[in-house]
Amino acid sequence: MTFEPIGLITLVVGLLILRRGPDFGLIVMASANLLGTAAAVKLPALGGANILVAHFLLPFYTLAISRSTWGTAGVLAVFFANKAGFVLLCFAFFAVIGAVFLPRIFAGQIEVFSISRDSLVVASIVSSPLRFSAANLTQTVYMVGDFLLFACVAAHVCNRGPQIIVTALMIAATVNVFLGVADAATYFLYLEDLLAPIRNANYAIATEGGLIGGIRRTIGSFAESSVYGAASLALFAVTLEFYIVGIRRPYLGLIAFASFLALIFSMSSSALAGLVVYSAILLVRGGFALVAGQAHIRFLVLMIASVCVALTLMLIVTTSTLLSTWSGNVVDHILFSKLESQSGIERTLWNVAGFEAFWQSGMLGAGTGSIRTSSYVVAILANTGLIGFILMLAFYVTLTRDAYLLRAMSLNGKIARGLFWAGVAAMLGPLVTGSTVGFGMRFAILAGGVVGLAAAGSAVVGQRTGWNRYNLPGLGQSNFACR
Question: Which terminus of the chain is less hemmed in, N or C, by CB atoms within 10 Å?
Answer without folding.
Answer: N
